[in-house]
Amino acid sequence: MAQTTILAAGQSAASSSTFTVDAGSSATVSIQASSGSIPGSAILPVLLKQGSGWRAVGSLSRDVWNHVVSGPGEFRVDRSDIAHLGVDVAVLLDA
Predict the structure, then answer these.
(1) Which residues contact 84 (CB under 8 A, 6 or more apart)?
(2) C-alpha to C-alpha distance for 2 and 94, rounded to whole angstroms
(3) What is the predicted pLDDT for the residue at 5?
(4) From the CB of residue 67, how many other CB atoms can be counted at a distance below 10 Å?
(5) Residue 86 and residue 44: Cα distance in Å, rounded?
(6) Which residues lie below 8 Å from residue 53, measured CB to CB, with a gap of 6+?
(7) pLDDT exceeds cutoff 80 at 1
(8) Are 50 and 17 in contact (CB under 8 A)?
(9) Three-class SS of residue 88?
(10) 34-68 residue pLDDT tens
(11) Rounded to 5 degrees, what are φ and ψ at 85?
């Protein structure tokens, strides 16, 4: 599996690049702090595309730093504005 950054480290609200997982395959998304630890209130939803919208299928946080998604599906991870926490957070993909 190759690891890529799908959401660059930062504190502003942003969505990761979308990624597709084929039927019968899986991928792992992980949260990473640039320095220090991930703040407890930094919770990033893992989303599955359904029709024209997105549905939460999991989340990344200090307590759950990785999440495995299974295909088929198109996924992304959202980061809300976490500037008040003072820590840059990135999202990585192993697929």
Answers:
(1) none
(2) 6
(3) 97
(4) 20
(5) 16
(6) none
(7) no
(8) no
(9) coil
(10) 888 898 899 999 999 999 999 999 999 999 999 99
(11) -90, -20
Of the candidates 41, 17, 12, the residue with the CA atom closest to the CA atom of residue 29: 17
At 13, is the secondary structure helix, strand, or coil? coil
- Give the C-alpha separation, 44 to 61, whole Å: 6
Residue type, 21: V
Backbone angles phi, psi at 78, to 5 degrees: -105, 140
Residue 44 corresponds to which tokens in the numbers above?
Answer: 């990033």
8 A C-beta contact, residue 84 and residue 1: no
Structure tokens at 1: 């599996």
Query: Does residue 46 contact residue 68 with C-beta atoms inside 8 Å?
Result: no
Indicate the residue type of 9: A
Give whole-number Cα distances, 47 to 28, 37, 86, in Å: 13, 24, 25
Distance CA 94, CA 64 (A): 16
